[in-house]
Design brief:
This protein is α/β, with parallel strands linked by helices and 695 residues long. Helix content is 40%, strand content 21%.
Length: 695
């Protein structure tokens, strides 16, 4: 395919991300989604947008600020992207405000009242005064705008109230201007007021503080308060100190601290804020013409909606799906022996993550285990995974942990656990210089019998495993085990040559292997034998992969994709992409597993792993994708992908134009893939229980 034709149909990843985030907003607007879940989706949308500005828009701003002549083309492109993002953000923000207002109104129909400071009764005001004295007093310290030159040390994780008040002195009357950081970390964003006559009452902390302003400024000679919310977003890219005399741990720690002082990129303030007050807020942030200054509604930091109190109304949430225990594994006396007999897998959060924890815990205690090696990218605050590893080290096992200190926004947690593991005698390896270690692999060295490995599509993280759909393959197949050993050899000794026979590993051979698999489908199509590609990934933005998928489509290969996030493909273009269909699913669980299926002339090849089809995954990270050989597990992986391609309830068309229309299939019956999969695994357990009882 010619380069100019390819370029014409390559959608920039950041624009595609805006389309993705809007799909979350659209889910929050659906009538059939329970009200409290709609609030949660609104919170997710807001949180995603904050992180997007902190990271991606920050990167585009850096490109624009680069004054080198050779960067002129990239600079112009970045300006264009920032402008497109700004227009989309402005349009979506209006939809967002309407959605928040609608859901809040609907909550009142369910006797959940989110009231403002203008609506409080006398009894409620008494409660608020008491709340101030018991919890807020001492946590709220107003800062006068006249006392500062810049908003240097304020964090973009907080929400602020800018306050204008009447100031009376013997000389003249005028206004005083101050701002307040809301103590959300200590008090939460929402305050439950006493219930009354079957009604639940809540207030934003913002409004509680508004009610308390006379107490906050007591004795300062001011009155008649007005308070308006504002927030800002800083550049979150860490400036890592490259002084090689500093240890890696120290450099990352310093980088985390520098993030708090990143340059502001976006400010949002209450559109009703008086101009004189707005000038004082915006004027103390160093902004340039490409930064975003937006007037918005009364409340910001809607990410807090993810933690909205449920008031005991479980009926306004999704019915609970209890994680399913894998009977075929759980009834085995030794899970390691069970894996040595044949390959096993779990699909979280449908299956209980405790099965994987059991693997680790048995390995930590078993006399048949001599060593454990694992890669960790994100860690839970109270990580049972790390506790098992520490237990293994104390039991005399040789434990090696490769931990990625640059897992964005989880650096602090990873640093904490790294120190704990080092103290326990674990060999902690901080990845490969210049490459993020994003792979999710575990190697268990046995004193007798075959070694065992686990390869996952997602993090070994108890919290993620409750919300992210991920598959974990457990195998003792020696051809895969040997390659996993080589992955750890590569990480620990990156400059020695290493060969992978089974695994697709980046940055070594993964991209070339994927390109070869796509080329094979093109050849098979030309030869008239079965040829198709199915894949479930988070993101597709790699130009080479996009080009190859277009080439496959142009040669008649059917390409069916499930893509949750960024997608640079434009579908439905004659001669380019008319054979490509892409479904984007937003549902109660975050779609996260990566599964790749190739027809291979009728002998389907199936792969799972940690890598998306993005340049960062294929070129700049250590990623692992494994073939799936067990026939039953292959069948399950294909089932997962096919279920997603049938999802006409939660799926939306991803076409590169941002239409986000409802996904449709030839079968008009409503089909929801996550519900189907949960029921499928329930039925599977019932059948396995029956088989066990019959033995």
């Amino acid at each position: 395919m010619k380069q100019d034709k390819f370029s014409e149909y390559y959608l920039d990843r950041d624009v595609s991300w805006m389309y993705f985030n809007r799909r979350i907003l659209q889910e929050a607007c659906k009538e059939n989604v329970p009200l409290l879940e709609r609030l949660s989706f609104l919170g997710i949308y807001s949180n995603n947008l904050d992180e997007f500005f902190r990271v991606r828009v920050a990167s585009q701003n850096r490109i624009v600020e680069c004054r080198k002549k050779e960067a002129a083309k990239e600079r112009d492109h970045a300006k264009n992207i920032i402008n497109r993002i700004g227009k989309l953000n402005s349009a979506y923000s209006k939809e967002y405000e309407q959605a928040v207002a609608e859901v809040t109104r609907r909550l009142r129909d369910e006797n959940i009242y989110l009231i403002s400071d203008k609506e409080v009764s006398e009894e409620q005001m008494k409660f608020i005064r008491s709340y101030y004295e018991e919890k807020l007093s001492g946590l709220i310290i107003p800062i006068w705008f006249s006392a500062i030159k810049r908003l240097d040390y304020e964090t973009d994780e907080s929400i602020y109230l800018a306050v204008r008040m009447a100031k009376k002195t013997t000389a003249r009357a005028g206004y005083g201007y101050a701002y307040i950081e809301l103590p959300v970390g200590s008090c939460g964003r929402f305050v439950r007021l006493p219930d009354c006559e079957g009604r639940h009452y809540l207030m934003y902390l913002d409004d509680v503080v508004r009610c308390c302003l006379p107490f906050v400024f007591r004795g300062l000679g001011v009155s008649d308060f007005e308070a308006y919310a504002f927030k800002f977003t800083r550049d979150a890219e860490m400036e890592i100190d490259n002084d090689l005399r500093s240890g890696v741990l120290q450099r990352i720690s310093k980088g985390v601290k520098s993030r708090k002082r990143g340059e502001p990129l976006r400010i949002i303030y209450d559109g009703l804020m008086p101009k004189d007050l707005a000038r004082r807020v915006v004027g103390r942030l160093v902004l340039d013409k490409l930064d975003t200054v937006m007037s918005g509604g009364r409340y910001h930091n809607h990410k807090d909606l993810m933690k909205f109190p449920d008031c005991g109304r479980d009926d306004l949430k999704y019915p609970k799906w209890k994680p399913i225990r894998k009977i075929d594994i759980e009834r085995e006396d030794s899970v390691l022996s069970a894996i040595q007999k044949r390959d096993r897998f779990i699909h979280v959060p449908y299956h209980n993550f405790s099965t994987f924890l059991r693997v680790l815990q048995e390995a930590a205690s078993s006399r048949k285990v001599k060593s454990i090696k694992i890669t960790l990218y994100r860690l839970a605050a109270e990580s049972k995974v790390v506790k098992a590893l520490i237990g293994a080290a104390r039991n005399g096992k040789k434990v090696t942990v490769v931990i990625e200190l640059l897992a964005r926004f989880d650096e602090s947690s990873n640093i904490y656990w790294s120190k704990r593991m080092q103290e326990a005698g674990i060999n902690v390896v901080f990845g490969v210089e210049g490459l993020k270690v994003h792979s999710k692999v575990l190697h268990i060295g046995m004193t007798s019998g075959a070694d065992v490995v686990c390869i996952s599509t997602g993090n070994f993280h108890e919290g993620n495993a409750k919300a992210y759909t991920d598959c974990i393959l457990m195998t003792a197949s020696q051809r895969i085990v040997r390659d996993v050993e080589n992955v750890f050899n590569f990480i620990e000794r990156p400059y020695r040559p290493v060969k992978f026979n089974e695994l697709l590993v980046s940055p070594n051979t993964m991209k070339n292997r994927f390109v070869a698999l796509i080329n094979a489908e093109i050849r098979n199509r030309q030869c008239g034998i079965p040829a198709y590609i199915k894949a479930k990934v988070n993101h597709i933005t790699d130009p080479d992969i996009v080009r190859k998928l277009y080439e496959a489509s142009a040669n008649g290969v059917k390409v069916d994709l499930l893509v949750r996030g960024n997608c640079s493909l434009v579908t439905g273009v004659p001669g380019v992409s008319e054979n490509i269909r892409i479904n984007g699913i937003i549902d109660r669980y975050l779609e996260h597993s990566r599964i790749f299926v190739f027809a291979a002339g009728g002998e389907e090849k199936v792969f799972i792993g940690s890598a998306d089809w993005m340049p960062r995954n294929l070129d700049n990270r250590v990623e692992v994708v494994t073939p799936v050989y067990d026939p039953d597990i292959k069948k399950e992986m294909i089932l997962i992908v096919d279920a997603g391609l049938k999802d006409n309830m939660q799926g939306r068309i991803v076409d590169g134009r941002g239409t986000n229309e409802q996904w449709h299939t030839s079968d008009s019956e409503p089909f929801r893939s996550q519900e189907y999969l949960y029921n499928h695994y329930l039925e599977e357990n019932v059948n396995q229980n029956s088989e066990g009882d019959g033995k």
